[in-house]
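Page 42, continued from yesterday. The earlier attempt failed because a stray header line got pasted into the input along with the sequence. Redoing it now with the clean sequence only.
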Amino acid sequence: MLPPLLPETDDLPEHQQEALKAAFGIVAATRQHDPMPLRVGVLNLLARVSRSRPVLLIADDVQHFDRDTRDVLGFVMRRLAGHAVTVLLAARGHTPPDGFNPDLPVLPLAPLSRRAAAAVRRQAGATAVEVEGASHAVAVSRPKDVADLIREAVRATSV
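This time it went through. Structure tokens are written below.
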């Protein structure tokens, strides 16, 4: 989710830059594992980027994320108020996965048929959607529900 933003870490404090780059395997970790610099680094990175342009963070199959990743996402989501960052999580089940606020808005989505999914892709003029995770969302969800969920997420973050 974040690798496209890593070039923008130069303005972050050095320990946060190091934590981000170590988390993505760009550099070897030189400090003992402390989750706080990574959590705060992700938060500061998203906040800084959102000052120049809105950010849509899409995470698919969140129920399969490891505990550390869910903890980082949960930490960041609790502190993004006032920033132009919208987070769209996709997960199986009817409640947010462990590590996330149980009161997050949930919109259950029924699958599209293969034929309907192909029609959506053709109508969009693409065989694959370039936004990470969106291809799966289009393939398994009703397009209207995806649009409603995105509008709700934007509305919730702009309040």
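Notes: Helices lie at 14-23, 35-52, 67-77, 114-124, 134-140, 143-158.
Reminder to self: strip header lines before submitting.
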